[in-house]
Amino acid sequence: MPQTGAPREIWEVPELGPSLGRLGDPPPGAGAGPPGARLDDLRLRLVTGVFELAGAGRAFAAAGDPDGAMASLSRVAWLALWEKAVAASAERVAAAVNARFEEAAAESRYPRWRLRTCLLTPDDTRAIAARLGGGGGPFVTALDELEFATHGAAAHRDRERHAGAAWRSALTAAARRLEAAWLALEQSAAAEQLRWQVDVEQVRAWHLPRWPLWLLTAITLGAATYLGLVLGGYVPVPPALVGFAQLWWSAW
Question: Hey, where are the domains in the chain?
């Protein structure tokens, strides 16, 4: 049931677009930006999720339901969006790295059974996600502060105008920290791909070992030389080659 007491404008959800900064920028054109896995669609999906939370919060606030507005933009809701973006980014990076392994292996004719040991596994992807999310610490801290402000606003919504202002301030702070967290994620994604590129280049530089070919050549030449000496009468004929030697001599 809608709450009464504090003026409705106290619980209006602030515009979060300016606080999100570069997160809402359109993706660069083809060929622009750093090489490797592109995460622009995931970034825009994250921003869209934030705007959807804000839209739901505004709807509740307009209906006079501050509790619904605060629940729509809760710590859990923000964190779910972030964790989903991190997981999707890790999968994108892992897929890009595996594609590079496949391409390098095709160039060098790297053995398929050995390539399977190089490709990134789900465990590797989870480890990448942990590293990509490492820059989200300040964002998580901002969400903790948002939760604290939410509890304070819920307790004093009918008495203190300051409670609503603190909640709105915590929302914009969370949005700013989300921008910083994503920029850190993009840097980590670039570093992650560069890290695996060393292994990719090792696969690309691989070539079939030549020592078996040289060994086979040496054995063949040695056997041919020995046979020539035997048939030429320069060395005694071993028992195993007596029949062949007599047949050879009779033919000549």
Answer: 8-204, 211-251
How confident is the model at residue 250, as a pLDDT? 75
* Distance from C-alpha of 216 to C-alpha of 222, rounded to nearest angstrom: 10
Question: Can you read off the two tokens belonging to residue 26?
Answer: 């359109």
Residue pair 203/101 in contact (Cβ under 8 Å)? The answer is yes
Answer yes or no: are the C-beta atoms of 49 and 83 closer than 8 Å.
no
Q: Mind listing the pLDDT tens digit for each residue in 73-109?
A: 999 999 999 999 999 999 999 999 999 999 999 988 8
CA dist., res. 149 & res. 7, Å (int): 18
Confidence band for 12, pLDDT divided at 50, 70 and 90? confident
Distances (CA, A) of 183 to 44, 190, 192: 13, 11, 14
User: Is the model's pTM score more than 0.85?
Assistant: no
Q: Is 85 left (phi over 0), alpha (psi -120 to 50) or beta?
A: alpha
Pick the residue with more confidence: 7 or 130? 130
Per-residue pLDDT band at 151 (split at 50, 70, 90): confident
Angle at alpha carbon of residue 129, lines to 94 and 98, rounded to 5°:
5
